[in-house]
């Protein structure tokens, strides 16, 4: 086992670990159950809430043991310690009961396991979960477990499908039973609970019974059944939509759980899905990883795990050879190790807990909260209008101003039958309630859900996995992006292109034939042993397989070019202690003892100027170590500067030799801190990592969109400036500073200079957190990328945390809002486009819906108070409601984003949902519809020269038909809020065209064939033409009204804004 390029702080030193204020906790052999009392400590990852309501905090608190535990703990309130423990005890009791039942069901597998593996799965599971040290000794310790499981600690399992399948049959698969998804009928019930729909169904029953009583069964069922059928359609369409989105969110949750794990099979390292792990697998774990299954530590250094997802206790636990127990679901806080899997899936405590808890997908996004305010306001206005219409129509009926339904005549006191009066009142109530149905914008939440679900699905194709719904919206508001360099702005394909050894450059970098063998021996030892990567050479020949981080792979590939025999070098020395890569010190170390001699070599590898600062000698090519004079040190600084100016990452190799007698014995070596100097410098290498070809254009797009891109990197400032300039991040007036300078500013100085800072070099995770906090304090909406465990605080503090899917640790991913699956900055820009698209699509739908609301309410209200009758019946209004709420949401909420979205400035965090251009469009279209349709309401028969018994019916049908076509044409207008050409991209949006076409077909059917159902009559072609022309005029109005400029200052206050 060797060191690694992981982001962590000091290792094996409890008082310094992660620079936290807590100390490590050494587990005793009796430890391991939830019933015990745990101490509390302040957690370095404890980030304040972003302002959730108390109700939402209580909901989060009920799900403290869930898959996304790292993020959800952040939202929980601080209960008393005793209450927390009591809840954990109850949960533990329930989990134990589920586990006992599971063991009973699988008891039959024990007999087969006894013969093949010489161990019972249940007993093996209990040893790990209850941390039974004595039972482990009875099984022969780690070597005994490896033996009974028929696996090899160095080579792993054979990658043989038959053997793997046998292990799954005996021990189970690494999956756990999930709670069944919410069934479709549950969504139907939820949709049916709407109060207005319940009232309408009540009215439908009354209308049906009265109609059949007064007009007979043959004629009397139409009105009641029509209303009921319309309500059923609304319920079904809403239920189907919600159900499909629920299934989609469930599928996305499954994608989040599919973690990639590094295992050893057949002697080679490979990445597999966490679901494919089997008992006996040899798994490599490192800082930031999630422990994928229950197991035992075979070999490791400074391994500390956090079991807060299981116990709620955030104190790190030290895992070592005396207490080697690793439980599934815990996170590696520090160090690295190799473990053998002993339990998977439902045989683990984690699996039982996950099966008991399930997933929570009931997140309510900020935009949904704002829309609730808009919907409530509109609903109150609509309800007020409905009550007024009801009162007016009732008064007009009882004073004899209007006639009752079905030609029942005017009301005459003492003469009109009670059944007719009751039927008239019910019909008036139907109209009033239907006005409420149209006024209450149920489609707003649906539009948000559709838009978010559509965006999340499409963002997968754009290499972005959304973990929090609200992040889709917030990305549209982002004003600055703080990006890492390696892998995000660059290709992450590192190659050694320059090498400086023993006082001179070597070109080509692998030409070391003149170098002394003793020098090469110590250099090769540093390359081979001081790495977290590996080199696999197949016995069948072929290209070597190199694994590890990009930097490690570059160094190992350089070793291959030097013809290093990795297996031979490894066998010539023994690793005593490891310090993995430290994001503060930016170096990694390993202590090895050669098989010959009584010396110990401590090798260090890391940032060149840091290693140089710790070195006082230089090993020359003749294998002689001499003191480093001042001029040589200056020369080396120039060498580093030359490499950095060429955008190369400069890495140094150094070592210190010491007597074996100065090394602690086996009992104390676990806590031994490696000596950091004075060192003897061996070599400098320059690693080239080309920038991604698409990055300069992506950065330019961000700048056009009003988003400032900042680069935060661990490279030295010369390298950082060269790469930032190449990417287009560092502009003429921008500043590039190092992390130390940035953190030493006073808050006032930092706030003053921050807008000009584009590059922070030699930064630490704390610098990134400080940057995010300072930017947010200035009112910026900050998106930040991160891949390491120590990036978690910054990812949580940012408005949008973007974790890297390839290089990112599981801790970083769980702390993020969105995972960029290809680690590409261009994908971040695509996420910005989707964020703006979600917000813009919701605005389009609001504009469309408010136009219908204003027009329908005004037309019915004016007609009711002036004529005592309404032109649009309950069935017709329900059909308009279906067009507006469901089909309109589906059409407008699923518009794909365009590059034009990036030409606008970021959406303001407090920008009103209904902007002045939207009010301009809404009022102009509503005024047109109200004017035209009221003219037809009062003068339609004269204008159309209608006469006869069906004149009123034809006129009312024309009003209904024209009203529907106005909405269809205005739906096209709503595609573009400010752009005059509303047809751009229309022909490529097949979903939109399909919905509009379907609506037209259904409108024809309703008018021409469902006359009794919809209270319509068949129209002649000329009346169809009039309806379409009236609708088309809305296009002309929509075009010319956009020439009218509107002020920036808001006209009308919106609660949603």
From TrEMBL:
Every Calcium-transporting P-type ATPase N-terminal autoinhibitory domain range = 43-78
One cellular component GO annotation, for this chain's record?
Answer: plasma membrane
Domain P-type ATPase A: residue ranges = 259-357
> Transmembrane stretches, by residue range?
195-212, 224-243, 377-399, 432-455, 850-868, 874-893, 986-1011, 1023-1045
> For the Cation-transporting P-type ATPase C-terminal domain, which residue ranges apply?
870-1043
Identify the enzyme class: translocase
Q: Where in the cell is it found?
A: Membrane
User: Which Gene3D superfamilies does the record cross-reference, listed alphabetically?
Assistant: 1.20.5.170, Calcium-transporting ATPase, cytoplasmic domain N, Calcium-transporting ATPase, cytoplasmic transduction domain A, Calcium-transporting ATPase, transmembrane domain, HAD superfamily/HAD-like
- What is this protein's function per UniProt? Catalyzes the hydrolysis of ATP coupled with the transport of calcium.
Q: Can you tell me which family this protein belongs to?
A: Belongs to the cation transport ATPase (P-type) (TC 3.A.3) family. Type IIB subfamily.
Please identify the protein, giving its name as recorded.
Answer: Calcium-transporting ATPase
> To which species is this protein native?
Ceratopteris richardii
């Amino acid at each position: 086992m060797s060191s690694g390029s992981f982001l962590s702080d000091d290792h094996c030193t409890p008082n310094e670990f992660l620079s936290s204020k807590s100390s490590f906790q050494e587990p005793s052999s009796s430890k391991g159950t939830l019933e015990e009392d745990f101490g509390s400590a302040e957690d370095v990852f404890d980030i304040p809430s972003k302002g959730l309501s108390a109700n939402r905090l209580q909901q989060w608190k009920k799900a403290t043991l869930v898959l996304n535990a790292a993020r959800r703990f952040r939202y929980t309130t601080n209960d008393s310690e005793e209450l927390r423990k009591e809840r954990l005890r109850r949960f533990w009791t329930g989990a134990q009961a589920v586990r006992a039942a599971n063991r009973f069901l699988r008891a039959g597998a024990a007999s087969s396991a006894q013969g093949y593996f010489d161990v019972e799965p249940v007993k093996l599971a209990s040893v790990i979960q209850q941390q039974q040290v004595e039972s482990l000794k009875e099984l022969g310790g780690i070597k005994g477990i490896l033996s009974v499981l028929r696996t090899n600690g160095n080579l792993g399992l054979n990658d043989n499908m038959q053997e793997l399948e046998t292990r799954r049959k005996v021990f189970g698969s690494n999956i756990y039973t999930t709670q069944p998804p919410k069934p479709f009928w549950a969504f139907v019930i939820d949709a049916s609970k709407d109060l207005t729909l319940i009232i309408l169904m009540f009215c439908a029953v009354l209308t049906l019974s009265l109609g059949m009583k007064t007009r007979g069964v043959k004629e009397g069922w139409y009105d009641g059944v029509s209303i009921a059928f319309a309500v059923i359609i609304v319920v079904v369409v809403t239920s189907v939509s919600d159900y499909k989105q629920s299934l989609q969110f469930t599928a996305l949750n499954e994608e989040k759980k599919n973690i990639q794990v590094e295992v050893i099979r057949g002697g080679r390292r490979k990445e597999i899905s966490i679901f494919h792990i089997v008992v006996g697998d040899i798994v490599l774990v490192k800082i930031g990883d999630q422990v994928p299954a229950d197991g035992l530590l075979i070999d490791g250094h400074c391994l500390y795990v956090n079991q807060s997802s299981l116990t709620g206790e955030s104190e790190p636990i030290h895992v070592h050879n005396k207490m080697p127990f690793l439980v599934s679901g815990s996170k590696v806080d520090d160090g690295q190790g190799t473990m053998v899997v002993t339990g998977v899936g439902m045989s683990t405590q984690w699996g039982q807990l996950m099966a008991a808890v399930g997933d929570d997908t009931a997140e309510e996004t900020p935009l949904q909260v704002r829309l609730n305010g808009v919907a409530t306001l509109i609903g109150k206005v609509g309800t007020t209008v409905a009550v007024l219409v009801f009162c007016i129509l009732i008064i007009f009926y009882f004073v004899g101003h209007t006639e009752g339904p079905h030609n029942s005549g005017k009301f005459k006191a003492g003469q009109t039958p009670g059944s007719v009066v009751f039927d008239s009142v019910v019909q008036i109530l139907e109209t009033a309630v239907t006005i409420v149905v149209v006024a209450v914008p149920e489609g707003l939440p649906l539009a948000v859900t559709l838009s978010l679900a559509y965006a999340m699905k499409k963002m997968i194709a754009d290499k972005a996995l959304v973990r929090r719904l609200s992040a889709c919206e917030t990305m549209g508001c982002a004003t600055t992006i703080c990006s890492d360099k390696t892998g995000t702005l660059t290709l992450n394909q590192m190659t050694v292109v320059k090498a400086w050894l023993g006082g001179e450059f070597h070109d080509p970098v692998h030409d070391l034939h003149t170098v002394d063998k003793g020098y090469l021996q110590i250099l090769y030892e540093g390359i081979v042993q001081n790495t977290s990567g590996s080199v696999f050479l197949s016995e069948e020949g072929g290209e070597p397989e190199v694994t590890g981080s990009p930097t490690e792979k570059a160094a190992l590939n350089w070793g291959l070019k030097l013809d290093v025999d990795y297996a031979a070098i490894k066998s010539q020395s023994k690793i005593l202690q490891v310090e993995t890569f430290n994001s503060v010190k930016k170096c990694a170390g390993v202590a090895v003892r050669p098989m010959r001699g009584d010396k110990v070599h401590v090798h260090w590898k890391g940032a060149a100027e840091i290693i140089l600062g710790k070195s006082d000698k230089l090993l020359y090519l003749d294998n002689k170590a001499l003191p480093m004079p001042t001029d040589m040190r200056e020369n080396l600084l120039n060498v580093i500067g030359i490499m950095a100016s060429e955008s190369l990452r400069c890495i140094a190799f150094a070592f210190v030799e010491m007597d074996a007698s100065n090394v602690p014995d086996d009992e104390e070596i676990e806590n031994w801190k490696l000596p950091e100097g004075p060192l003897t410098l061996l070599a400098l290498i320059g690693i080239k990592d080309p920038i991604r070809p698409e990055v300069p254009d992506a950065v330019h797009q961000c700048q056009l969109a009003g988003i400032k891109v900042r680069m935060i990197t661990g490279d030295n400032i010369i390298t950082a400036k060269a790469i930032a300039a190449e990417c287009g991040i560092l502009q003429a007036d921008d500043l590039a500073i190092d992390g130390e300078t940035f953190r030493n500013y006073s808050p006032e100085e930092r706030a003053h200079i921050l807008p000009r800072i584009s590059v922070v070099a030699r930064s630490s995770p704390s610098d990134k957190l400080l940057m995010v906090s300072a930017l947010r304090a200035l009112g910026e909406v900050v998106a930040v990328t991160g891949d390491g465990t120590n990036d978690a605080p910054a990812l949580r503090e940012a408005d949008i945390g973007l974790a890297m899917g390839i290089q990112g640790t599981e801790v970083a991913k769980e702390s993020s809002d969105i995972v960029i699956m290809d680690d590409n900055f261009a994908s971040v820009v695509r996420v910005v486009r989707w964020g703006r698209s979600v917000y813009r699509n919701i605005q389009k739908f609001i504009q469309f819906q408010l136009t219908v609301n204003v027009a329908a309410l005004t037309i019915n209200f004016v007609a009711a108070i002036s004529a005592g009758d309404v032109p649009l019946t309950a069935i017709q209004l329900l059909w308009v409601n279906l067009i507006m709420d469901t089909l309109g949401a589906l059409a407008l909420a699923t518009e794909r984003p365009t590059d034009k979205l990036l030409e606008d400035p970021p959406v303001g965090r407090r920008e009103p949902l209904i902007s002045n251009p939207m009010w301009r469009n809404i009022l102009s279209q509503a005024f047109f519809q109200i004017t035209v349709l009221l003219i037809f309401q009062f003068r339609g028969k004269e204008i159309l020269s209608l006469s006869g018994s069906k004149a009123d019916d034809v006129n009312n049908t024309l009003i209904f038909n024209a009203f529907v076509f106005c909405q269809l044409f205005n739906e096209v207008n709503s595609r573009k809020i400010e752009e005059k050409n509303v047809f751009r991209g229309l022909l490529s949006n097949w979903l939109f065209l399909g919905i509009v076409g379907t609506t037209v077909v259904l409108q024809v059917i309703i008018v021409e064939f469902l006359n009794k159902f919809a209270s319509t009559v068949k129209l002649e072609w000329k009346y169809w033409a009039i309806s379409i022309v009236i609708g088309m005029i809305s296009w002309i109005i929509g075009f010319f009204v956009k020439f009218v400029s509107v002020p920036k200052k808001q006209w009308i206050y919106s609660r949603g804004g």
